[in-house]
Amino acid sequence: MVLGIDLGTGSIKILLQDINGTIRCSTSATYPVNSPEPGAAETNPECWLSALKEAIEQVQHQNIAQGFHELKIDAIGFSGQMHGIIPLSEKGEILHSAILWADGRGSEFIPILEQYIKGREAEIMNSPNAGMSAISILWLKKYRPEVYNKARWFVFPKDFIRYQLTGHIATDFSDASGSLLYNFKTHNWDQNLCKLLQIDEEKLPPIYNSLEVIGYTTAQALQYGLPDQIPVVTGAGDTPAALFGSACFINKSSPSNIIQISVGTGIQVVRPLSSIPPFNPTLNFYESVLSGQSYHMAGMLNGGLALEHVREWLNINWDEFYKEFDKNPSKIPQDLVFLPYLAGERTPYRNPNARGSWIGLSLQHTRQDLMASALFGVACTVRLGVETLLHSYNTLKPNHFSFRLVGGSSRRSGWVRLLASVLEHSLQILTISDTSAKGAAAMARTTVYKSMPEQPQFHEIQPIELPELEQLYKSFLENYQKLYPAKYPHT
């Protein structure tokens, strides 16, 4: 048996898999994202540890309910939200809450990074955005200097959990490559950039392969319900883990024709690659699980992040809303446009100052109308990401690709039908929604059992051909472009 642990933005998910890849049980536990000041997005790492303990207890209960009285685990794999940082002291003490990928307080440092990266785009391969690791470290250094000076390590979220179980400080190539401090030519921390930014390179963790066993659980793991001496693999960020878990990696005989879409708290539109593409300031490029493989990504901030806020504002229950919406998912108010940019936006415009709004709101609109328009606004954001990614390959012809939808949102039939219709493309819906957790378990299985993930089962959803949706999408674009002139137009 192997355990896959995925540390997401708002919840931790754990899968227990047997040697054949069958999922024995799946559990989760939630924790809050706090905003103690404008632009902040933080979580107390102690909340992660409490959730870890709770989720493992659920695994044990499910295991016993199935007639297995002992939890035998051969290896543990990890995945987790990317870009966040946790400063730790020499003794491993938490010095500050985790600063997450959605944190916008470091936007003042973007011009500095742009200046230093200019001319070196082929080495860094990513444009600076608030919430990325380097920018959050610079923010800490300026506004929490006592934390920066005392910090021995800056670790990424999944690596913090693994450290608690093993006592080993480490990261993998995918998380390192998402930091803005990584050099794609040397496949290591960029010494010159660290010096220019005056970030101490020795505070950054050593980098290991995702499938490498880097330690074993210690006696400290007992407090979370895990035995000691279990092999632990390095793991990867949540997006590359999801790619690996769904067997979405490069076949050496042919390039990938898969676009994988994940709509969780944020949105990722991803294509796996085996070579470094030309630099595109509106896209991200990161290392993947397997050596020599990587992925190109349109990353958007406002997926479930925006929808959950709208749901809370309107005091709507998701199940009640979808009960009505699923009857006719194309019933979107034609005179109401929602821009979901509650946290600024990355792809395609890289505008940290963008804000959300309803345009055309009137007395006749209902809560159901507002929620439906919010779903449509997020679907439009996904389409913008797809178009931006395809445009980087000099094509806007999605029929050359298969589109996969992964993540918890794929369980909502009305949402899936709406998204397929906005994209004007069929969607392959995988039978398992927790692909990052599955990827974490798959990394453990591959390491100890030498068993690569198999192609997943899926069913296909066809789009509804409705001219009014295309017109509403154009209205969405026009309103955005009027309100927020594009710094980097995507077409």
From TrEMBL:
This chain's protein is named Xylulokinase
Respond yes or no to whether keyword Membrane is given for this record. no
Gene3D superfamilies recorded: 3.30.420.40
* Enzyme class of the recorded protein, top EC level: transferase
| EC number(s) stated in the UniProt entry for this protein | 2.7.1.17
- InterPro entries per the UniProt record, alphabetical: ATPase_NBD (IPR043129), Carb_kinase_FGGY (IPR000577), FGGY_C (IPR018485), FGGY_Carb_Kinase (IPR050406), FGGY_N (IPR018484)
Q: Give GO terms: molecular function aspect only.
A: D-xylulokinase activity
What family name appears in the similarity comment? Belongs to the FGGY kinase family.
Asked whether the keyword Transferase is assigned, the reply is yes
Q: Which residues form the Carbohydrate kinase FGGY C-terminal domain?
A: 285-444
What keywords sit in the KW lines?
Answer: Kinase, Transferase
What is the organism field in this record?
Answer: Gracilinema caldarium (strain ATCC 51460 / DSM 7334 / H1) (Treponema caldarium)
Which residue ranges does the record assign to the Carbohydrate kinase FGGY N-terminal domain? 1-245
- Pfam family for this entry, one: FGGY_N
